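Task 17 of the worksheet. Students: predict the tertiary structure of the chain below and write it out as structure tokens. Keep your answer in the requested format; marks are given for formatting as well as content.
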Amino acid sequence: MDALPTDPLFYAAAIPAVILVGLAKGGLGGAMGFLGVPVMALAISPIQAAAILLPILVVMDMVSLWSWRGNYHVPTLAVLLPGAMAGIGLGWLTATVVTPDIVRLILGIVTTVFVLRWLWQKFARSDVAAPRRPLFGVFWGLVSGFTSFVAHAGGPPFQVYVLPQRLAPALYVGTSVIYFAVVNAVKLVPYFALGQFDATNLTASAILLPLAPVATLLGAFIVRRLKAEAFYGLTYATVMVVALKLLWDGVSALFG
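Model answer:
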């Protein structure tokens, strides 16, 4: 682990992962941000991958909070955040009692469900705004907090609850920015308690950090000039390939 910052195999996975996360933060969204931890988990432990990415995400959140200040939907945040805190706690408990191979298997399952959800949405779209149901929101907040802790992948459960409400675009983005800024800030505590912010991981985060603003600006550049939907099919196919690899690694380690 001490040799991680000089390991070329680590950078072969980490550099594309950070670029994908930055592109998602820049506006491309979709599956790109979800790929960060799964791609890095091909080279290192999923928990370590998430720990290295977390400080980078927090810096991105600071920029996003300033960019989208004044745009937020209080009822949505009030419903989702309590569940998210419980989900983070569940993720913390999971990380303390299971092996990295089991976490890798969980990540593969979550990633597969994410792709299947996208396929379902392709054939089941509705233009009618759904009513806000608090218990429904608490549940999806819990799922979002858990997947965010394990893989910084809280976006899909968040979207399951919020997108059907048909909020105005600026209100939706601003609400999501505040939600994930709070979630990522809270995650710093259990990641620190798990000993994941050691010198090795923080050094790796610092080395990768300069890629984040470049990738974020590139994402914004692409969004302004090209249709992001053109990238989604290929991106989700890539997610599925990564998911299958994680499932194979997890099952092989546990039952091989």
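Marker's comment: The two ends are 25 Å apart (CA to CA). The mean pLDDT is 81.
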